[in-house]
Amino acid sequence: MKKAISAQNTKMYIENLNAAPIATGAITSASRSAPAYAVFDDASKLKDGAPIYITGTGWASLDNQEFVLQDLDPDSKSAALHGSDTTSETEDLSGIGMFQLNAFADVCARTYTINQTPATSIDTTTLCDDEKTSLVGFRDPGTLTFDFFIDPTDPDYLALLDAYDDGEERMFEIIYRNGAVRTLPVIVQSINETGGVDQAVAGSATLKITGAPVLTQPPGSQPEEQYSLNASAAPASGDIPLHVTLTINESGGVASKFAIDWDDGTAPHDVIGQNTATHDYTTAGSFTPSVTATKGTATLPAVDANVVTVNPSYSVTAAVAPTSGASPLDVTLTLTESNGTAEKFTVDWKDGGATEDVTGTTAPHTYSVAGVYSADITPTVSGTARAKVIANAVTVS
Fold first, then answer.
1. How far apart are the C-alpha atoms of 69 and 72, rounded to whole Å?
2. Is there a contact between 187 and 206 (Cβ–Cβ < 8 Å)?
3. What is the residue-wise DSSP string for 64-98?
4. CB count, 10 Å around CB of 277?
5. What does the angle CA 236 – CA 242 – CA 244 come to, to the nearest 5 degrees?
6. Is the pLDDT of residue 271 over 90?
7. N or C: which end of the chain has fewer CB within 10 A?
8. 232 and 307 share one domain
9. Please, are residues 335 and 318 in contact by the beta-carbon 8 Å criterion?
């Protein structure tokens, strides 16, 4: 620790739950990541280190919780939600998510102290031990105390009193002169007032820290993570028609739109507010879908996904010979396959007998009763029964 900054011009604010919010708006999309990146309809009043309350997204990992904003990008109107994890969410956002940034009261502190209580030491020594043994117990986040001057008509002082009266958890911001922000969840425990001859009326407050503080670095203080994405299409091969799902993974931010070129001559597919897209390939060939992201006002270079190989559809023709004769008539079924090989063929000779499973491409049969018969054949390819084909008619006299 080789640097020092002046405490002068350090700003301190406590969340004011009784005042009108500073900003409200909609969350238009969010990434499935840890942390999650959210896109807002209006980010003009948002800033790094600010806590926002989220409702209505339909994602349990976000709704009815408060998250500290980091990595705010005014161009793309996106920011990371510190401590969030949406990787387990499987559905798209079910509705228009809403965010709220509450007002803050300026406590204008004279001095302040953050007191973190050491973790307890749990003695685990037994008579079997040769020396003392112990475990580290729970750590107490501690308290924040600060001194200030009191004017009983000051709205910010009244907001501090309200926080003490209702005992609700609030966010407390310490904004350092270099732009770093420390955001802490607190409960106001006590407010004291002192005064005397030839003295200003002074006060002190003790706030219980109820959770882990979040330290947000000022913009430009550390290398910004470069935005990147990768895309994968599954399945990577199959027969016509092939239904594929393209999954897009982002890091270092969140795009406002994706344009997907499926590489099969169809029009580009725009995707907004989600990281998956589906497509049906109806022609055979090898295709490389690509994704072009729009982040803020910039259109980024296209990124290729894996190659998708679409095979021609399996087909089979059936011929029975001879086509006529007197009973008992011995015939042979001949099957000709294209674009694949079946594991078996289920043959119904249509003469009232049981169906027959054939593993080769030829099969004999005897028609014992006079009539006209057209056998049908059902191929099984890769474990799936395909459409049946009808052989030519055989006339038995």
1. 7
2. no
3. TEEEEEEEEETTTTEEEETT---TT--SPP-S-EE
4. 20
5. 55
6. no
7. N
8. yes
9. yes
Within a domain: 120: no
Question: Last residue of some domain: 271, 295, 311?
Answer: 311
Amino acid identity for residue 364 in this structure: P
Tens-digit pLDDT profile for residues 218-263: 876 655 567 889 999 999 998 888 999 999 998 887 888 899 999 9
Say if residue 46 is in the same domain as residue 76. yes
Q: What is the dihedral of CA 102, 106, 109, 114, to 10 degrees?
A: 10
319 within a domain of the structure (yes/no): yes
For the chain, the distance separating the N- and C-terminal CA atoms, rounded to the nearest angstrom, is 104
Q: Nearest CA to 29 among 256, 229, 259, 227?
A: 256
55, two tokens? 């409702």
Would residue 167 count as lying in a domain?
no
Which two three-digit tokens encode residue 358? 């054939």
State the pLDDT at residue 260: 96
With a CB cutoff of 8 Å and minimum separation 6, the contacts of 128 are none
Tokens of 253: 């931010």
Question: Is the residue at 277 inside a domain?
Answer: yes
Residue type, 76: S
Judged against a pLDDT cut of 70, whether residue 331 lies above it is answered with: yes
